[in-house]
Amino acid sequence: MRRYWLYAFTLFASASWADLPSDPLGSPLWAYNIERYLGQDVTVVLDERVGLSVPGFAEDSTQVPLAVNLREFPHKVNKVVTWVDMNPVPHLFTANSTDGQLKLVSLNFRVQQASSVRAAVLDEHGVWHIDSGYVDAAGGGCTAPREILTNSDWESEFGTLKTGLFSRRGNTRIKASLLHPMDSGMVGNVPAFFVGDVEVRNETSDNLLLTMTLSESAAENPMFVFEFEGGVPHLSIHMKDNNGYQFETAIGEVAP
Amino acid sequence: MSRLLFLRRHIGWLVAAMFWVFAHSPGASAKSYELEATLVADGVWVVVGSTDNFSKTNGGNILNTGFIETGEGVVVIDTGPSRRYGEEFRALIESHTSKPIVKVLVTHHHPDHAFGSQAFEQETLYMLDESASLLEQDGEAFSDNMYRMIGDWMRGTEVTVPMNRVQPGLLNLGNRRLRLIAMQGHTGADLVVLDETSGVLFASDMVFFNRALTTPQTPGLALWRAEIRQLAQLPFSVVVPGHGPLIKDDRAFIQMIDYLTWLDDVLVDSAARGLSASEVIETAIPERFSEVEGARYELVRTVSHLYSDYEKDALSRH
Question: What SMART domains does this protein map onto (chain B) (predicted)?
């Protein structure tokens, strides 16, 4: 009986996605996660210019680096969505680039088992451009106990925010490192406790440059990297976790 | 009878039949490391492994082990990646000398060097104190990973922490004078053995030659580099690196210092420029390291082990 249900589901899924390009990595979750995170009846194209970069294997399943490097991307960037197909909660982050000037976004993630990873970018015409990568892994990253617990003074270190401002090829890059357990809620007796919202602002004009929402796939002690087009001398970053803690700072001087 | 019911009733027989087939298939027990001992000095042998990564093809035979006949028994250096390697290694030693094995020195706690220990008499096994603690702590996780990487070669292997501790200093045994040196660069506790009688230097994983060094437990690249400079001062005739070919001059040390300096510079410079880890793992490997096996693979690992500390050092706190 279950099998018939599965057939019906597959038929239904493929029927509604007549225009969806086939997955270059052949994942069974391709159409399902696209529909889940980008919506139904959206226009999707495969596009390497999205510049998704993940390592071929996870040396540490709890800390895998990911970057979306949009240097070659010819369109305006309205939104970037990333997910890890085989994770219990696949979604990693959604970044809204309010003025379309986002050039790079990078964040470390957890991987529960070997998985395809996706980055989808929404352009000014409403088209989603998707790039894919594959990470081999021993796995277990989402259900591993946090490292920070083994450090007895984690409570005094909790919330430590370190930032830097860098000039890259005429663009402005910021880096922010936050000491936070980012508990996924998938470890026994440890409730979900993670930063869900991030905002970056141009301090001079008070314009919002970026808003970002994170999910359970984000790794402990997140390291955010954002690059914006052109020179932005004064910025600020603001983060909020699901327990109401807020972390914010101005980021002011361009490093030489 | 439904298919499911059939399966339930006969599952015992099916499993038994499968075991019989596995036990009698030629592949099951035919695996052999085919170890060979090379005589490098009078009474000193080395067993040279490949410079590849762990794989189900090589069974983890990617390291160099050795043994020394002292006149008062045999001293063994490292035991290999699995019980099977340990057993074959011991048989190989016993085919070259009839003297008893009196001391087995396990140079550090990494699985490729310490997982063959089961094959030797427990009272002959020696390790640095700190290495033994590290093996207690990490052994099971290493073991899981080894089963994943080399599979059946690991059959029957259990983590064995040597019961005896080795003290740094001189060890006079028969006609040999061995100098035991405790270092830290590779794992925090690394034993180096210099046979002063022959000049053979068992540098273990303090030295990789034409094979990219590995960094999962290094306390720091600068410390490691300083210790390589100390090693280069020793009166050696042959260097036996932990991984890579034997060498009679100081080229392995020169390569190690060059490579460690390059790695450290890449990490410092990338952090200063605000690069993300994803960008650092794509750093070009200099042409002069073209003979260093596995450089790209190990760079990806090293960035994972070390880069976040370099990154945080380059940021300012609020």
Answer: Lactamase_B
